[in-house]
Design brief:
alpha+beta; Lambda Exonuclease, Chain A; 2 domains; 38% helix; globular
Length: 227
């Protein structure tokens, strides 16, 4: 994937939407439609304490940075990381650490994303975290091997290894975002078990739209048979 210009950058947070559903992503990012449900409101509340860029702190060998701006011209995405932890180390390889002004030693960079609820059955959270890692790697010229997802319901953080497979999937989703955005395409609905948990269900109306498409297809097929 070639590098993108600043004017071509898309919202990094959207990669979780397209991993969940291409139509949901397009409704939000192409058609600019959005609505709140209980899940999104709870998500906003969970992020309140980590969205202050001036609320960083240092605890000995740990530096915590909040609401960190991130850009990846490789993926063509821009956004921010909820939390980036810097861990002082003596053992990590040079290409996996950074220097911190006025702080001795070298530091490992670890992104941490906060989520409401509990771990998902799919990879939407993992690819968002991986995209953040891509951006942090790009801006610091380092390699990041892992990050963490913290879930509000379980109050537990889960380690995410940035494997070759996860990196490949993240790149594919980012590319798909640009393809749909550039073409201005909103994919047709596809009714699935996760649809009812979608905040855009009443805008998308997958069951009604699919039914309408089926009727239209039936009429077209009937006319073709009569010709």
């Amino acid at each position: 994937m070639s590098g993108y210009q600043d004017e071509d950058l898309l919202m990094l947070s959207g990669i979780q939407h397209i991993a969940f559903c291409e139509r949901q992503w397009a409704l939000i990012h192409v058609e600019q439609q959005w609505t709140e449900n209980v899940s999104t409101v709870e998500g906003h509340h969970l992020h309140e304490h980590c969205d202050d860029p001036f609320a960083g702190e240092t605890r000995g060998d740990l530096i915590i940075l909040r609401a960190v701006p991130v850009i990846s011209h490789h993926l063509g995405l821009i956004g921010r990381a909820d939390v980036v932890e810097l861990h002082r180390t003596e053992n990590e390889p040079f290409d996996g650490t950074i220097l911190v002004e006025s702080k001795p030693g070298r530091w490992i960079v670890i992104p941490v994303e906060y989520k409401r609820g509990k771990p998902k059955p799919d990879e939407r959270d993992e690819v968002q975290l991986c995209a953040q890692a891509f951006a942090l790697e790009e801006s610091n010229n380092i390699v990041i091997t892992k990050g963490y997802l913290y879930y509000g319901e379980t109050r537990h953080r889960h380690e995410v290894i940035f494997s070759d497979e996860l990196r490949k999937r993240t790149g594919e989703l980012a590319l798909r975002m640009h393809e749909l955005f550039d073409a201005g395409i909103t994919p047709k609905p596809c009714l699935a078990s996760h649809c009812k948990s979608c905040s855009l269900y009443n805008i998308c109306l997958p069951a009604i739209r699919i039914s309408a498409q089926s009727v239209s297809s039936y009429i077209e097929q009937s006319l073709d048979l009569q010709i």
